[in-house]
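Reading a protein record of the kind used here takes little practice once its layout is understood. The reader may check this reading against the record printed directly beneath this paragraph.
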Amino acid sequence: MLRSWIHLVLHFTAPGVVARFGFAERWRRAWLIMVATMIVDLDHLLAVPIYDPDRCSIGFHPLHTWPAVAAYLLLSLIPKTRMVGLGLLIHMALDAIDCLWMNGLG
């Protein structure tokens, strides 16, 4: 349960840190855009059960696969989609860290 709370809090705070230091003049907008990328978790609705605290999202859900991560990397390289791409990459990184923590590797 604690792991889930920490994971959720990081999904809001990590984009905030990146927004504050990476987009200082427009950090609020950047933070909102990056937090909005959590909509990527809608792919969890395709799973049975929808929520499993012991399931690693990376590689399981369609929008959490390595080809998707490559697309998010490309989005982060394009100035007009950079904030979206970074938000998605942060999300995937946090999910990957959660997978490591869940498996006792972190």
User: Anything to note?
Assistant: The CA atoms of residues 59 and 66 lie 7 Å apart. The mean pLDDT is 94.
